[in-house]
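#structure-requests
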Amino acid sequence: MPTRSNEQLCRLAQAGDTAARDILLENNLGFIRKIALEQYRSMGLDENDIGIDLEDLVQEGSIGLLNAIPLFDAGRGMKFLTYSAPAIRNAMTDCIRAALAQFEQRMVDKKDGPGFQRVYLDDILSDDERMLRIEAIADPHSRTPEQIYIQKEQLTELYAALDKLTAREQTYLLYRYGFTDGIEHPLIGAALHFHLSESRTKKVEGEAMDSLRGKLPGGSDTMVSSG
């Protein structure tokens, strides 16, 4: 088969050409793997034991791409990868969410085990380490002096507000918004990292953000990442 675009392959696949479908998937495995790696890193899947590896995400993303084929409408002028990317990401997230739910249940059912509530938030940072993270200002390169000044003022206010929170709230927000490792983690990623249920993580985040708003001038809820 001559080289065809994603959109051409998709039209053939929609008409029942299984070879075109397979080629479409093969041609875009690199794209799927890139998304999988981003998800794997941002959700800290290498730091927990829920049983998902990178290849699991690649497989789920591949299924997401295949499921997007019959729904794609080339007449709208959208590229196939642009259309299928949300389906790929959602398939991976659904896989992680299902694995997290199973992990929670295993921990609850484990009578002699520690239980699911291994709240790493309680393993609070030392004062020195916490202050180093709070004081880590983003690299100012490629910004105008005015932008640098405005951001520095905003960061100063943010860091001052963070320092007034409880150590537990600080630990959560510093990880969630990338002060810890330069990666802004999605909520489910924070749930995995702190070994919390997704609903409990939402509650923790809500309480921490409410506290932060109360400490910021004007009650701003803007959270700034470190990188």
